[in-house]
Amino acid sequence: MSAAANWWQTGIIYQVYPRSFQDSNGDGVGDLAGIIARLNYLHSLNVDILWLSPIYPSPMHDFGYDVADYCAIHPLFGTMADFDRLLAEVHARGMRLLLDLVPNHSSHLHPWFIASRSARDDPRRAWYIWRDPAPGGGPPNNWLSHFGGPAWTFDEASGQYYMHQFLPQQPELNHRHPEVLPAILDCMRFWLDKGVDGFRVDVIGMLLKDPLFRDEPENPSWNGVREYQRLLHVHTANLPEVHALIRRMRAFLDGWDDRLMIGELYLPNADLVRYYGDEQGAECHLPFNFQLIRAPWDAAVVRHLVDAYEAALPRHAWPNWVLGNHDQKRLASRVGSRQARVAHMLLLTLRGTPTCYYGDEIGMLDVPLPLALMQDPPALRQPEIAHLVGRDPQRTPMQWDASANAGFAAAGVRPWLPLAPDCGAHNVARQLADPSSALAFFRAMSALRRAEPALASGSYRSLDAGKPDVFAYLRGDPGNALLVLLNFAAEPRCPVLPLSCAAADLLLSTTMTPPRRVSLSQLVLAADEGMVLRLPVAGCVA
Ligand code: NOJ
Fold first, then answer.
1. b/e per residue, 397-410, with b = 16+ CB within 10 A?
2. Are 244 and 361 in a shared domain?
3. Which of 51, 52, 60, 65 has the most ligand 1 atoms within 8 A of CB, as the residue to mutate?
4. In a domain? residue 415
5. Are residue 88 and residue 186 in the same domain, yes or no?
6. Could you tell me if the CB of 62 is within 6 A of ligand 1?
7. GO biological process: any one (predicted)?
8. How do residues 108-122 score in pLDDT, each as one tens digit?
């Protein structure tokens, strides 16, 4: 696929973490009515596609990623009528709505699991993964949970272990049982019939595990910190046969017009691109590409990873880039507030669908919490590394204004997680009033992306910028080429570019200086500055 024609190729995806976006009913937790009240703000960001983390009924052991009913709305977030209104309001603004689908595991309170654990001969028993204890007693094998401890919990009543790669309250569905995928497809049908535009599928590469339940090998380069990393997960993730399952999900989704399937996958290029599918059938439209989150923030490293990803993409595959999500340290905390603008310019000028995380557009920072205030299960289960694995800091309430609770919740309400201490000064309202703010820059950058076909769908080529710390690339074709220059250094840099033209038009700088004509041979990038420039039509790009 070379030209971008579809909404999910040209659009910007924005992840809303519903618990933390806007509380409308005074319980300290965000809700659907709150999101509706903020839709005009989202529209003003020029984002096109909203993805909501789970809003289904759940006991909230993993804050909604433990689903107790795939076809309903948690009362904490509102009602189905609220959801229908949200969907209609999103569509009325020309935007799209994606839900989070969690087919790998349910809540232990899902009726399927309640039945499964009720008796060994219950028809739902084999919908989950049950095993006898190891011959000498103890868990059936050495598999580990992402959140610390074994991936097995013993059920006294039936004398067997069930498997879970996250919490014991998140038992894994057995996707080798012929009835399980159809049951999940039924849930997809429910939302697709309502008009939901697609799904972000949780841990899509983990849906199948080794049928022989073999031990996983030790990881020879384990650094001794996170227990989960002690093993190489060759039998619990990314199994070759998972692709056939994903092809079935995609074929089902394609029974509706123009819907989107995104897969959550943390994989190197060679494995990742297989999740687009092949001649046997399509899989994910967008297997999430998390490389910008994980890479050291260095111009040469980032250039290399962009070029390597572009080179690895199959011909039919559309690229995508992600800067943040609810599982990762926030962008501005990872790279610093000044470089966060450079990162957004990168995200919104690369070829492919961009995904942003709520609050990053105003440069929200991780909010460090003492252990006593942490709620995230991997932190509570591994207190000695809580500050490393806890995800509460990146999930704190959206900072809207300088009022009580920063406008997230009414005065006197206790938000479910504390607000950033500087939210009185660091918020949407303040930045809306400041034409040089991070928010003003984000909006200008997203508007530019929307206005320039070269950014939405043009080709990509990196350039040698002649100086370390500068990442330079072209978007578009010689008839309409844009040049992007990103200074990753906290000092000025003067790139030396392999371009034959003398001048170009600066369209946007991260510093928000006004557009102007600039000399390419005397160009100075200020510290932490990124620029998008339009090159003259002729004689510049070979
Ligand atoms: C990935 C989700 O993004 C994360 O938040 C969750 O804890 C696990 N999957 C388990 O569902």
1. bbbbbeeebbbbbe
2. yes
3. 65
4. yes
5. yes
6. yes
7. oligosaccharide catabolic process
8. 999 999 999 999 999
